[in-house]
Amino acid sequence: MSQPGVRNHPHPRRRLALTAAVTLFGSAALGVGVVALPEPNGLSATSDAVAAIAEDGLSPHATDVPLLGPQEARVPRLQNAAPAVVSLTFDDGTQDQVLAANILAKRGLVATYYVTTGQTEAPGFLTRDQLHGLVDLGNEIGGHTVHHLNLPTVTENEARRQICQDRENLRRWGLPAQSFAYPYAAHDEAVQRAVRDCGYASGRGLGGAIGSGEAMRLAGQTDLSDLPVVESVRPENPAVTLALKMFERQTGTAVYQKDVEAAARLGAGWTQLTFHGICERDAPECQDISIYEQELEQFADWLAVQVSAGRISVKTVAEVVNGDSAVPVPREHLSTGAAADPNEAHAAFTPGQSAEPGRRVSDFTHRNAQGSPICWNGFTYGANTADFTITEKKGKDDETALRLDLTANGAGEAKWLPVMDLGECALKAEGGQSREVTYTARGGGAQSQPVAFVRDESGRWTYFSAGRFTPLGEEWSEHTWKTPDLPAGTTALAVGLALQQSGWNEVRQIAVE
Predict the structure, then answer these.
(1) 512, 418 in Cβ contact below 8 A?
(2) Tens digits of per-residue pLDDT, 94-109?
(3) What's the mean per-residue pLDDT of the chain?
(4) Burial of 394 (0-12, 13-18, 19+ CB in 10 A)
(5) pLDDT at residue 336, as a whole number
(6) Helices 189-197 & 156-172, crossing angle to 10 degrees?
């Protein structure tokens, strides 16, 4: 029999118009090793999902605070049999979440940490040792894709690779990986199927459960009659479990306290709370969806009182929806398998008209519904402003080019690059090879530079090398750069053109041999 306010029945889904402070084609200001984010169109999410792409926790914040060990925490885990269950979840695997783990450990609380394995070990993100340290404290490590892509915007094969390779990475590192969280809370039926097929027991969305309803009322939503207060501990659809709106600084932890109190009064069901970055107590500023260290301490103190009083229990997601960590990941959906070959129909580089069988030429002609090139994206890094556009001219000088205008430049750079994925767009490559890059470009105001990134066997992309800075005139000119030998273990290559000073460039063709 269903309990009032507990989600045991089909729940209507409504489309959400997402907001994002991003450059053209959804590219956020990301650093080395972080891939650009696709345009958030066509996703399926609950009306309560929040996904501000530029501030979703992927701007990593390093901390030198060490993770506590079980003996250092010295606080036994708080447990009881209260039927009102709360799960604390943290998305993206940024290194500042060490602060959260220490805060919770000192109070006998545990959480689920959803990590993007393509960023593990990258500057500002958790290391493998830290992931194991989190497990030693009683926490759970879950999957969040390899590259934090908006899954409904990529092909079904790429979505499967992102989900399956992520779980395989965690399993190979000795982490069970039973639970999954959708980047941007974005999912459709095909993506949900992939979560199940890749062996995950659950997939967390955002929204759909209202708790006290206070956060939604503050956001101006008044029709809450069809929304359950909490999810069921036996979710009707484990591939999309309902959760409250993620933490936002404008509402703070007061809303979450009301939500937990509502669940405790109900005396049943499952309430999932979602956090991202943690800011140190003396940090001069904090992102809109990050929480200050002292705020989390106060909230954790309050939660511990609720658990000790028997009003709620705090469990990891896997303790609620327990899967089988021994379920293997289908090999055909891993980035190192045959399915990871580029899609010849719309890869960033397609076979060129040449006697050389290994020559690949850039292809800007394949577009999505918004007119953006499917396999090319604009990346910015550091303090600058960049505009990414496509220029097309018909007639005698028929041409299509990618244009970059860099203005208000401080530290960092901007560049056009292939979408750094696990197979649909990236150019297949092997370690030990040296590749010759020829590009046809023009520009003004600053020198341009060819740059290259490589992907390893786990799917992680990292900066590899760059050619010399070259002045470009307003007439098209051809330039050649030979890369160093690619590192051992390389599975793919991404090559593009960058600017580090204010100016502009257009690239008409990039060929790789």
Answers:
(1) no
(2) 999 999 999 999 999 9
(3) 82
(4) exposed
(5) 55
(6) 30
Q: Check residue 77 and give its pLDDT.
A: 95
- Residue of 217, 187, 219 whose CA lies nearest to 203: 187
* Residue 357: how many other CB atoms lie within 10 Å: 7
Geometric angle at alpha carbon 66, from 145 and 166, rounded to 5°: 10
Tokens standing for 212?
A: 């006290």
Do 275 and 90 form a contact (C-beta atoms < 8 A)?
A: yes
Residues with Cβ within 8 Å of 28's Cβ and at least 6 positions away in sequence, in order, are 20, 22, 36, 37, 53, 54, 58, 380
Phi, psi of 179 (to 5 degrees): -120, 150
Per the listing, tokens 């204010």 go with 502
pLDDT (tens digit per residue) in 23-69: 222 232 222 222 232 333 222 222 222 222 223 335 566 788 999 99
Calpha distance 477→432 (Å, rounded): 30
H or E element, residue 317: helix 317-320
Confirm if 242 and 204 have CB atoms less than 8 A apart. no
User: Tell me, what DSSP letter sits at residue 406?
Assistant: E
Structure-block tokens of residue 166? 């992520």
Q: Under 8 Å CB-to-CB from 184, ≥6 apart: which residues? A: 18, 40, 43, 45, 49, 51, 53, 56, 150
Measured CA to CA, the distance from residue 192 to residue 239 in angstroms comes to 6
Please state, in angstroms and rounded to a whole number, the distance separating the CA atoms of residues 4 and 267: 10
pLDDT in tens, 158-203: 899 999 999 999 999 999 999 999 999 999 999 999 999 999 999 9
Q: 361-386: b or e for each residue (b if 16 or more CB lie within 10 Å)?
A: bbbbebeeeeebbbbbbbbbbeebeb
CA 378/CA 498 separation, integer angstroms:
10
**C-alpha distance from residue 9 to each of 14, 84, 226, 228 (Å):** 16, 18, 11, 9
| Contact yes or no for 400/364 (Cβ under 8 A) | yes
**How many CA atoms are closer than 13 Å to the CA of 302, on its beta-carbon side?**
15
Is residue 317 within 8 A of residue 112, CB to CB? The reply is yes
- Taking the C-alpha atoms of residue 85 and residue 268, their distance in angstroms, rounded to an integer, is 7
Rounded distance between C-alpha atoms, residue 220 and residue 217, angstroms: 5
- Residue that has been written with the tokens 């990593």 in this structure: 60
d(CA 347, CA 380): 22
CB 229 within 8 A of CB 194: no
Q: CA separation (Å) from 460 to 55, 335, 398?
A: 21, 10, 37
Residue with tokens 């996703």: 43
Direct distance between the N- and C-terminal alpha carbons of the chain, in angstroms, rounded to an integer: 65
